[in-house]
Amino acid sequence: MKKFLALLAALMLCHATYAAELFGAVDAISGSASVADQTGKSSSLSLGQKIYENQTINTASDGEVHIVTEDGGIIALRPDTVFRVDAYKAEGDASDKIFMSLLKGAMRSITGWIGKHNTSAYLITTPSATIGIRGTDHETTVIEKADGDEPGTYDTVNEGATSLKTPQGETEVTPGKFAFASKGKAAAPVLLAKQPNFWAKRKLKIENRIQKRKEFLRGHMEQRRNKRIAANRNKTEHKVAKRQSSERAENRRNRAKQNEEERRKKNNRD
User: Fold this and answer.
1) Closest Cα partner for 64 from 42, 39, 83, 51?
2) Domains of the chain with CATH codes
3) Would you say 74 and 214 are in contact if contact means Cβ atoms under 8 Å apart?
4) pTM exceeds 0.85
5) What is the rounded distance in angstroms from the CA atom of residue 224 to the CA atom of residue 226?
6) Element (H, E) at 11
7) Conformational region of residue 100, where left means phi above 0, alpha means psi within -120 to 50, and beta covers everything else
8) pLDDT tens digits for 139-165?
9) 3-class secondary structure, 65
10) How far apart are CA 128 and CA 81, in angstroms?
11) Nearest Cα to Cα of residue 214 among 136, 149, 267
12) How far apart, in whole angstroms, are the C-alpha atoms of residue 263 and residue 177?
């Protein structure tokens, strides 16, 4: 009985994993990183591995992970980072969404078709702020302890624009600017007069590959979206055709039963 229950639990967990939406796949990795599911079960991350919503990625002090999302975007996770995919859907329609949490460390986000066609469905949540976008390439950093920079959330933009928000207000961030939301103060985000100290201290090993990948993915983004839309349309049409076929078969069975009943009644009268 115990073995049966254990097998049943494993099957339920497997179903839950595959029922979750596919977020993307690991496109590049350097150093050590791991991925954990909702139960907390963790395993080492590898190149090509698929990432699903509700999974959490942890990078070690030497770890960098680049993920290509299903909508053709790029998520670049920096060393000492904890990142979670909260909710995701990339169907090429109004149901699309990408909600993520940066709990610690830093990430660069280059938006795919969701950021282009449905900007309100993009959100990054940190311990002290939220970040919304307008089709962009930006970087968010969470500083936990003071080490030359005040603890809180920092956001800078390479392309496009973001909006850094707290309950007290929001600040638009444009290319080349840095905005900051304090961890310990209830205040609206502010634009910084200069780049924070941690920016010059960053040591990234695989950052140079991003520009080429960004250009490639953007060149194929709409084609990728159109394929997804067409695939979903075909799937819907197949479901409709299958349902209609089932309804026709049911109607034939019902008519056959009705005809048989009428024959029986006629025979009884005769």
Assistant:
1) 83
2) 20-206 (2.60.120.1440)
3) yes
4) no
5) 6
6) helix 2-19
7) beta
8) 999 999 888 899 999 999 999 999 999
9) strand
10) 16
11) 136
12) 84
